[in-house]
Amino acid sequence: MNRDEFVSSLEKIDVSLSQNQADMLDKYYEMLIEKNKVMNLTAITDYEEVLIKHFFDSLTLRYALNKAGISEELDGKTLVDVGTGAGFPGMVLKVAYPKLKVTLLDSLNKRLNFLNEVIDELKLEDINTVHARAEEGARNKAHRESYDLGVSRAVANMATLTEYVLPYVKLGGLFIAYKSQTADEELESAKKAIALMGGEIVDNIKFEIKDIDGTSMERDLVIIKKVKKTPAKYPRKAGTPSKEPIVG
To answer: Which residue from 68, 117, 141, 181 has the highest number of Cβ atoms inside 10 Å of its Cβ?
Structure first.
């Protein structure tokens, strides 16, 4: 997949990138690879693979919302990316939707230092980074139940991810979890956690992404709506949601 094919494939899922936005993603890629030489940001470094597995994958959010019957614009919305890592999906979504107001949250400060460099280089506005563990950030009044959208590609089971992210989402807002093909099984065991955090499952959107060798990767985007406020005792103290996920 070259850059033109990448842009064309995005159009098929209702995402339009200008020449300038594509240039910005190229610059982001260059900075990612350069920084990756001195710190571990990604195991995927090939340009085509990054286009598919990081950039395209991040932008499937719009496709998933459309498939779920949620057609409202992303521009002007507030979004928090919990456990953003190297900036996926939050940074990519910001490039594609310049009026989206983005917060990138991560527990590792050196990752955020890199992302701040990208923000400066790309001259992005209405995007900030927050250094905190997910559980701690969600107890901060500045962030708790403050966002229209909460997203995460973090590697954690759905019960844990729900306790991490849903406390950030305001009533009526959405939590979208980027998952692999195990999402159905995880969702079943996470129903208790979803209900306790004030969520309601809207849909699990399934699709396939073609890898550079032609094989298919199945992806699930789980969409959960915040229908009730999260009780004050959640999330539990740092480390507990991952060690003792609420299942049942």
So the answer is: 68
